[in-house]
Amino acid sequence: MRLIIAAIGKLKAGPERELFERYRERLTATGRALGWGPVDIIEIPESRAPDAATRKSQEAERLLAKVGTAVKVILDENGRELTSQAFADYLRAQRQAGTGTLAFLIGGPDGHGQAMHSSADLKMSFGKMTLPHMLVRVLLAEQLYRAATILTGHPYHRN
To answer: Which of 68, 94, 105, 112 is most exposed by smallest CB count within 10 Å?
Structure first.
């Protein structure tokens, strides 16, 4: 199962990118045993439209065009909060269902547009607090890696 992390904005060089890449590499190695990979990164520039509604609409359109028919999980503060085990179970179920590509979509500073919300297969939240997109990417990469370790029986995850 191919994994995509698609986000508005570019993750610049620095500690966040280094941490993201560390978890991405771990996920790539551990995910092989589960049939996961590759992990593709898609970065889309923020819209420069003058109002938030137009920016969200344009960004949603661009993200959706890049991920095509993939199963879509959007990261949204109003989404479902999952435990790490429940997230791992969701990923297992997607793989068992024959999902070819699973895309995780991270919106820009204004959030996701209506087209994105309408097309989402799952809306997921890391909590009610607003988080910077660069930290959301790190959290997502870590949780994907954690899910892989849960499903492979690796001792990384402890209850």
So the answer is: 68
What is this structure's pTM? 0.94
- For 42, the token pair is 């898609």
Please state the domain extents for the chain. Answer: 5-152
d(CA 96, CA 40): 21
Q: Helix or strand or coil: residue 38?
A: coil
CATH topology of domain 5-152: Alpha/beta knot (3.40.1280)
Strand order in the sheet with 71-81: 39-44, 2-8, 101-106, 71-81, 122-125
Continuous segment of H or E residues that includes residue 85: helix 84-96
pLDDT in tens, 51-60: 999 999 999 9
